[in-house]
Every structure is written in structure tokens, then in C-alpha cells.
Amino acid sequence: MPNYTVDASILNQFSQWIATTPPLFHGDEVIMDGNTFPHSTQQMPNYRGNSRLGFIYQHVCEQLIEQQTHLSLQATELQLNHEKRTIGELDFILFNHANHRLEHWEVAIKFYLLHDKLWYGPNASDRLDKKLNHMLHRQLQHSASDVFIQQYPQWQYLSPHLLMQGRLYVNPFEREPIPSHCQHKQINQSQISGYWCYRHQMKRISEKLFLLDKSEWAIGLQYKRPPLTDTDEHILHCQSESGRFWFIVGDQWPNNG
Predict the structure, then answer these.
(1) Is the residue at 162 inside a domain?
(2) What would the mean pLDDT of 202-216 be, rounded to a whole number?
(3) Given this model, what pLDDT does residue 2 score?
(4) Could you give the angle at which helices 53-67 and 8-20 cross, rounded to 10 degrees?
(5) 228: closest CA among 214, 215, 246?
(6) Residue 180, by phi and psi: left (phi above 0), alpha (psi -120 to 50) or beta?
(7) Is residue 114 part of a domain?
């Protein structure tokens, strides 16, 4: 994928969003809660790399980890290989001086839309319950596997931790009960802060919408642009004049992905 550039001013806004925004779930012994990055004052350089938001998010998380006095980064994007093939990758291994322990972190930024009691991604093959299950029971288990311990014996007994941030969206024109939990984990209700609707419902939105660049999905509109007009695109992520985040999806969503 060709290199994609994000200006330092946007990255600085993004880093503050990461440092101050609660995760999608309330914390427990594995899921990280707020105040993950108490020190986040340094300015960041421009980003040049993969355009996927997950890559940008991981890059900013790495920069934030390096700013923390209580964390020492040991490895990033550590590949796990078995019989000449890659079977997994670990986002971060670090030493937490506050707890005097080695930790394995997986990080993710995700956006999900509530439909028929399930949270779907804009690409409807992605779902919050599936993603959470994968992160907890596959990604975070790599560091406890025999293959990992054989390859990296210096990092045995890692403590697993998940940072999952983002936003959850409801359709104000088709009200349905909002779940309090997903996979038995308590959803942070403050992160149910976006709206979504089908394309045929778009005319019911009473204010102008502005299309967001991928780097603005979390932090919102950073530069002035013309308001959105009718378009044939299947999925749009926008912000309204009042600041509300909106996803506009095709009328067959989620059945057509």
C-alpha cells in the first residue's frame, strides 16, 4: 500500500484523544481502562506509512508509550513464526516499572454500529463480539504459547493487556434497546456517542454533514471543506455542524457488507 502522510498537528490531536478518551469497555485485569498514558505532552512528527487507521493508531500509541516514565518499550510488531510461516504478531512488549512486570499489549481502534442487538463495523463482516473474542482469546494468548516461549524465552510470563478504543453508533430513526455488555464485558456507555442511518434516511438529518478523512475519524473535522452532497458511495463517515459523528450506510447494509 502506498505511503500516506498525516500532518503532525493531526497526530498531536489524535494523541490527546487517545490519552483522554475512555476505552470501549470498562477495565478489568486484562482490559485497560482510562489514564493509560498520563504523560502525553511531547509534539509528534509527521506520519508517513500505511493509510489504515489501525496502523496510524498503533504508531501514535507507540509514541505515547515512549513518553511514559513508568513504561520501557521492549519490542513492537513482534512476529511469531512456526514452521516457516507467520502465525501471529504481538503489538507491544514492555516493562511496567510501576508494577515491576513484563506486559504484552494489544491495541485497537474500532467503530461499530448497533443493528439487531449486535455491533457491526461499517464493513459488516467485522463485529464487536467477534473482534473482542479474537483479541482476548487469540491475539493475547500468543505470548503464552509454547511457540512464543521457545522463540523468546527472555519474555516468559507476560501479563496480557488490551486497549480498545473507538466509538459506538446508534440509529436515532430506528430505536432499539442498547446492550450494556458484549461477550460479558461491560460497555462504556460514554462511548455510545455516534449516530448512523441508511441512505434513504439521510434526508431526515436536519443539519449539514462534512465528510471525514480517515485520520479524522476519532478526533473529528480539522479543516474546513464543502458540506456533503448526495453521493453514490456506499459508506460515509461524517461529522455534522453541531459536532455529531454520523455513519451513512447503503440501504442493504449489513447484508451487502
Answers:
(1) yes
(2) 94
(3) 57
(4) 70
(5) 246
(6) alpha
(7) yes
Strand segments, DSSP code E, in 50-158 are 71-82, 85-96, 101-115, 118-120
Q: Which residues have a Cβ under 8 Å from the Cβ of 56 and sit 6 or more positions away?
A: 6, 11, 14, 47, 49, 50, 214, 215
Residue 161 corresponds to which cell in the numbers above?
493487556
Q: Has residue 186 been placed in a domain? A: yes
DSSP 35: -
Q: Which of 133, 108, 116, 131 is nearest to 254 (CA)?
A: 116
Q: Average model confidence (pLDDT) for the chain?
A: 93
Reduce the DSSP state of residue 130 to 3 states and report it. Answer: helix
Residue 76, domain extent: 4-249
Identify the three-state secondary structure at position 96.
Answer: strand
Q: If we measure between CA atoms, which residue out of 109, 77, 120 comes closest to residue 255?
A: 120
Count of domains for the chain: 1
Instruction: Look up the pTM and report it.
Output: 0.94
Structural domain includes residue 102: yes
